Amino acid sequence: ETTLIKTLYQQAQHGDDQVCVLGWLKTIRTAKKLSFLEVNDGSSLKNVQVIVEKDIANYDEITKLPINSTVKVTGQVVDTPKAKQPFEIHAAELSVKGQSDSDFPLQKKRHSFEYLRTQAHLRPRTNTFYAVFKIRSLAAFAVHQFLQEHGFVYVNTPIITSSDAEGAGDMFQVTTLDLNNLPKTEAGKVDESQDFFKKETNLTVSGQLTAEAFALAFRDVYTFGPTFRAENSHTPRHAAEFWMIEPEMAFADLQAEMALSEKLLKYVVDYLMQKAPDELAFLDANVDDGLLVRLKKTSQADFAQITYTKAIELLEKADRSFDYPVKWGIDLQTEHERYLSEEVYQKPVFVTDYPKGIKAFYMRDNPDGKTVAAADLLVPRIGELIGGSQREERQAELTKKIGEFDLNPAEYQWYLDLRKYGETKHAGFGIGFERLLMYVTGMENIRDVIPFPRTPGNAEF
Ligand code: 4AD
Ligand code: MG
Questions:
Q1: Residue 377 confidence (pLDDT) above 80
Q2: Which mutation among 155, 243, 244, 458 tests ligand 1's pocket best, with the greatest number of atoms within 8 A of CB?
Q3: pLDDT at 158 over 80
Q4: 91, 96, 229, 291: which sits with the fewest CB atoms below 10 Å from its CB?
Q5: Atom 22 of ligand 1, residue of closest alpha carbon
Q6: Which pLDDT score is estimated for 125?
Q7: What ipTM does the predicted assembly reach?
Q8: 3-class DSSP state of 279
Q9: Taking every annotated instance into account, which residue ranges of this chain make up the domain Aminoacyl-transfer RNA synthetases class-II family profile (predicted)?
Q10: pLDDT value for 140
Q11: Ligand 1, atom 29, residue with closest C-alpha
Q12: How far apart are CA 366 and CA 386, in angstroms?
């Protein structure tokens, strides 16, 4: 019989109704004859103000309550159209359900995000992290909703795998062998036949290759799951464990792939502006004052599109210098990506047709022999948000690429089979879910959009 604070805020008028609210004490201010409490119950970013008068039986206990204590308030909801908050509860009864210790490590003063990372189990109780993780949940739902409404089939690709989907080698190995006492074969090599899977396995870096197997049966599919990369990157946009959304479409080319990613991104942004206005307004006011403007622009403006070659020309002509020197053939660095999206276009921009040497083996060769049909979406503040491509569907070309990239052809035989039995052009992309969240929350560090982040040297909890 408790009422949610969210429900109270949804009602235009309250008519002095009797309600019962169960929540946590956020602040308490005691005046001569009454105390003002703010209580939050998790259903809303907003608190409800509770007025407790001196004549309540346990008034002394209440005035000494440490913040975070769990309380149950029964009383009347009174509209206060002239006050800052639209209504308040006049408590008839306030019982303490769980008293907090008084040494709660988070004070009312604003803590740095860095400090709050050391309190990852308590930071969901702050307004900022409440907003971020509410948005995380809504954004995930929006992604599923958009793709399902467009006929995409959700595929759960393996988390433990024996293939390196990106051919980049940044993998966490999975083993049951005792590393201090590895079994050896007679030839002195590690005896993998004694390992659980009897072969080398790792945590997946991407579900793409196995998603392709499903796209060639279901046409339009997607994965949305955890991926792992052992890149030793100490940057604000790399995590060792992150979630990726990977749509894959049969009969689609690079243009179709880009069109879908733009639509998907716009859908998520619109969904959040509709479903999380309080959270976005809070983040705009407290974390990133350009957030709402940026989201509106993302929703309304057509994304730009240029080739990699043109991007290099723009960077070479830039009226500023870069730490990492620009020349055709380099992998674009964050500073280059941000310059293009923030300064040149001031909105998301697709960069297409990258040199083949810096992209994965499965991307389709362009007729020029130098570039591949790849498209990265670069966005302000983040840089690369999406990586996509048209896949090499020609069996002979793919076999050649596997050789050029020095990959073991036996490991990719099943992947070649997909071309052998009914090849068709197909394309897809991967969105880093946490980078998307950084973009839609204004948070500047990927560690602050992951409930319990994993980065080099950090796997707490
Ligand atoms: O560009 P990437 O490596 O592409 C792939 O993995 C393809 N298989 C995707 C596909 O075509 N199906 O990664 C895709 C996206 C990046 O654009 C970036 O947003 C994110 O994943 N990402 C990371 N996010 C956080 N931490 C990391 N270490 C990341 N590495 C990539
Ligand atoms: Mg990439």
A1: yes
A2: 244
A3: yes
A4: 96
A5: 432
A6: 96
A7: 0.99
A8: helix
A9: 133-451
A10: 99
A11: 238
A12: 20
